[in-house]
Amino acid sequence: MLRTRLLTAAVAIPAIWLIVWKLPAPLFAGFIVAVTASGLFEYFAMALPEHPVERVTGIVWGLVVGAGIVSRRPEFWGAGLGLTVIGGLVFPLVRTADLAGAVHRLGLTVLGVLYVGFVTPHIVLLRHGGPDGWRWVLFTVFVAMGSDSGGYFTGRAYGRRKLLPAVSPSKTVEGSVGAIAGAMFIAVLCRVIFFPRLALGEAFGLGGAISLLAQLGDLCESALKRAFGAKDSGWIIPGHGGILDRLDSLLFPMVFVYYYTAFPRG
Q1: 132-148 core/surface letters (b: 16 or more CB in 10 A; e: else)
Q2: Fewer CB under 10 Å: which end of the chain, C or N?
Q3: Tell me: the pLDDT tens digits for 205-250?
Q4: pLDDT per position as a tens digit, 129-176
């Protein structure tokens, strides 16, 4: 498992760098929409495996929302959210024999559309948010990866106290602290290599915040998988599972960093 993870990382890091730095804006947006589509497919395959109509409609609505975010067209993502709520509320009317189940599935559908369809495309907003957009995306991705690696190796070496065993039995308090340390180290390294305009204190602070959000996102996705009875969200990434298994530690940080950069500071 460790060897597979390392080989995947060795391929993924330069690939991510080139994609974020060099890929033209329309192609990058299309790439993220494809990632969003894969994430939606994985989520609804876990959440609604026996309900193909709700599953397909959830994927479609999520893609409408995602396309609206990517294109900065609020009427599109607003229409997607409106369809999710209105269409989802119609399902119980045609499933009167199982009203409670239909309403439960509506909640799962709305969650999936928001969690994957609305949040994931913020990566595009961050990348195209200014001249340093690609730097912010790389910074967020690499710091989140540093958090994941720091937590993994520290937890294996020193982990004793369980962090949240009911959700993720392998995670430890020591691993969580190591994740923050790993994120801060990578944040400073990113500042040295490609983001010199970032102040040292800001790099440290953002590293800690990204790590906390990455860990929270990881735990939230683990809770969803446990609730759905799934070990992994998919199999597309060797050693890491599915798209959502890799995105879980990126989605919350991407949203945070986008709004951190979008709002004027000082």
Answers
A1: bbbbbbbbbbbbbbbbb
A2: C
A3: 999 999 999 999 999 999 999 999 887 665 555 445 688 988 999 9
A4: 999 999 999 999 999 999 999 999 999 999 999 999 999 999 999 999
Amino acid at 70: V
* Contacts of range 26-31, beta carbons closer than 8 Å, 24 or more positions apart: 28/124, 28/127, 29/70, 29/71, 29/124, 29/128
Q: How confident is the model at residue 11 (pLDDT cuts 50, 70, 90)?
A: confident
Q: Checking phi first, is residue 130 left (phi over 0); if not, alpha (psi -120 to 50) or beta?
A: left
CA 266/CA 264 separation, integer angstroms: 7
Neighbours of 80 (CB within 10 A): 22
Which tokens hold the place of 253? 């940080």
Give, to the nearest 10 degrees, the angle between helix 25-47 and helix 200-228. 40
Amino acid identity of residue 200, one-letter, is: L
How far is residue 66 CA from its own chain's centroid? 13
Amino acid, single-letter form, for residue 24:
P
Q: CA 20, 23, 26, 27: dihedral to nearest 10 degrees?
A: -100
Q: Are 214 and 261 in contact (CB under 8 A)?
A: no
Amino acid at 75: E
Burial annotation 206-217 (CB, 10 A radius, 16+ → b, else e): bbbbbbbbbbeb
For residue 113, give both structure tokens. Answer: 């559309």
